[in-house]
Amino acid sequence: MSKIKVLNQSGKGISEINAPKEVFTYPVKEHLLYEAVVNYRANQRQGSASTKTRSEVRGGGRKPWRQKGTGRSRAGSLRSPIWRKGGITFGPKPRSYYYNLPKKVKRNALKSALSMKFAEKKMLVLKALDFKEPKTKEGTRLLEILKLDSALIVDQHKNKNLFLSLRNIPKIKAVDYNQVNVYDVLNYNWLVFTQSAFESLMEKLKL
Questions:
Q1: Which of 24, 157, 158, 198 could be joined to 176 by an S-S link, Cβ 3.0–4.6 Å?
Q2: How far apart are CA 189 and CA 8, in angstroms?
Q3: What is the pLDDT of residues 95-120, one digit of tens each?
């Protein structure tokens, strides 16, 4: 079983923890990563795009000209879709793009993403991330020490000072371990766990 070095907030190694082989030797399956990313992006869509049909466009109640005798083609409304300022045929209407992936697919896709980060040596585990107060300066200092330019930081929601300190820093995102998803893991260069969040997520993935 592989080992992962646990660092303190100064970036120095202080201990090691096991890297479960069920997760970190899992093969990188690109089709699962693709399905997970498409699913995440679809579920983020607002689905609020809307166009008006001919019945919804204002006006058009009067027949433009009589049916026969003008030499022109028949027309019943100024708001026909073939006319300028007319309705839209088959245009978008508000809808939900949300759909679920099977639990096993989601779990294996996340294993693939974590395995890839581990193989690329782009994953860190810190003993803890304790900030005395919620200050962006504290978060910036931590990132400078660890030399992180783009990172997904994973801890637990109860650590409010951490989340508040990092929320305004570009290219940095802090999430609870229950909210780790494939899109975010792939979207950031580095993946950083606290030890407690790492162990909790590993227990979740072993189910």
A1: 157
A2: 20
A3: 999 999 999 999 999 999 999 999 99
